[in-house]
Amino acid sequence: MKDLLRTEHLSRNDVELILDTAAQFAxxxxxxxxxxxxxxxxxxMTKSSTRTRLASETAVAHLGGTPIFLRGDDLxxxxxxxxxxxxxxxxxxxxALIVRTFAQSDVDELGAHSTIPVxxxxxxxxxxxxxLADWLTIREVFGEDISGRKFxxxxxxxxxxxxxxxxxxxxxxxxxxxxPPGKWAPxxxxxxxxxxxxxxxxxxxxxxxxxxxxxxxASVLYxxxxxxxxxxxxxxxxxxxxxxxxxxTKNLMSLTAPDSIFMHCLPAHRGEEVAAEVIDGPxxxxxxxxxxxxxxxxxxxxxxxxxxxxxxx
Length: 313
What we know:
Number of strands: 9
Order of helices and strands: HEHEHEHEHEHEHEHEHHEHH
CATH superfamily of the largest domain: Aspartate/ornithine carbamoyltransferase
Strand order of the largest sheet: 7-6-5-8-9
InterPro entries: Asp/Orn_carbamoyltranf_P-bd, Asp/Orn_carbamoylTrfase, Asp/Orn_carbamoylTrfase_sf, Asp_carbamoyltransf_Asp/Orn-bd, Orn/put_carbamltrans
Shape: globular
Distance between the termini: 9 Å
Number of helices: 12
Pfam families: OTCace, OTCace_N
CATH class of the largest domain: Alpha Beta
Keywords: Transferase
CATH architecture of the largest domain: 3-Layer(aba) Sandwich
Helix content: 40-55%
Structural class: alpha/beta
CATH topology of the largest domain: Rossmann fold
GO molecular function: amino acid binding; ornithine carbamoyltransferase activity
């Protein structure tokens, strides 16, 4: 597999390979410090970023490469140059491309026309690098045996809910997403895709509207901001009102398993999607989770440039 464009393209073996290598990079960040020696990696972002940018640039540096950061308005693509032309130009200068943008179709097109590996650093519908960091954190806490455990996401049915279902399906896990019904539920296509993967892996997929049922007995309670980048400001009041019952409170956390953890991809809005006493409390693993954005992106790059990620086909 040349690129990592969508979470659903990964196999369980791919995920395990990436997580194993990322765990090694966590212990020894410079263990492969010549893998990208004298090479560059382009990092193209049309969305603002803290963790993905820092993680990507650091990962490239730890592999011995030079990151080249490009904002959306830095390139001629903002003045009408086609995505395919841009992909070909970047391929002539860089050894890999990391993209963080709005439309998944733009990332897919960059992958189709690039001769170098393209890595999806977030789109409006998916976030594979985040889920790899999440699952490395989960593995550190619970080990590799996840039988009998339930992994729950509560909140907006956004790109994170899609990726949560998909990665859980790949890993053969019992994954749950609880969102309001209607316009802030996960996309039907994402749910269908996760269920198709689950039918092969033995995973259990649940999409609910009851946050308490979703939280009951869960090993992980996960959430994301309610207003995502690109959400129109005019829907704020309606959306926050619909999502209010899905806030991660101390009471909701009390329904989870005794050894449960709280996770959040960040940035967080304390007092909206999560109470401060939860996100800053003893069950929260958000800082370790954020740290693993670097280790997992480093592992993805390492294996993509070596052609060692096989895909699920």
